Amino acid sequence: MKFFKPTLLPHCLGLLGLFILATPSVAAEYKCWVNKQGVRECGSSVPPEYAQGRIEVVNERGLIIRVIEPAKSREELEKEREEERLRKEREAAKREQERLDAILLNAYTTERDLLLARDANLKSAQSQLDITLGNLRNSQKSLSNLQEHAADYERSGKKAPDALVAEINELEQDIADREKQIEKKQAEKRALEERFEKDLQRFRELKGKSSR
To answer: Of 31, 65, 112, 206, whose Cβ has the fewest other Cβ atoms within 10 Å?
Structure first.
């Protein structure tokens, strides 16, 4: 391997020029790097300890014809991968928002259309909730009657019939199930209200943009 410091480069390149004139078919290239002392060195090949650093390829005139960037560290590669992942996520989110916007604008022509749809959906949700609440109250009333009936047996010193106890247990389970249904329907109604509120705000934004 041959290498030389930059102070020798003009002289070497001058000799190199004479050689190239004699053999025009050969295009000379040299590689330059910075050593551990911060001194720029050039040669026909790069020492192994500097091979991963920044390399400048120069021609016989000493002009840089290309640059070989240093090898990236693992941390740099991981950062690039993370940035690329985030970029793809942003692009996917943008495409999804555009899809939802198109659906929203196709579904409603005016704000009044959206409000009417909201009121109709909320009314339907409330009706289903009211039905479930009514069924719960009926079950609770039936349970109260059965429990009172069972208490009459106990007061008279008798054991409540197995059929009565089974019916009480069944009603208690029915009430627990209905209470869960009510919680679910209430959550669904709240989610519906939130969705329509977001849709309304987004609809106003989109219509505002289109009217500018």
So the answer is: 112
Dig out the tokens for 210 from the structure. Answer: 């289109």
Contact between 68 and 77 under an 8 Å Cβ cutoff? The reply is no
Q: Which residues pair with 67 in a beta bridge?
A: 56
pTM of the predicted structure, to 2 decimals = 0.58
Cα separations (Å) of 68 from 8, 26, 62, 150? 23, 22, 16, 91
What is the CB-side half-sphere exposure of residue 142 using CA atoms within 13 A?
A: 16
Computed over every residue of the chain, the mean pLDDT equals 87
* Residue % of the chain over a pLDDT of 90: 71
Look up residue 51 and give its DSSP letter. Answer: T
User: What's the rounded Cα separation, in Å, for the pair 32 and 68?
Assistant: 10
Token representation of residue 183: 């919680």
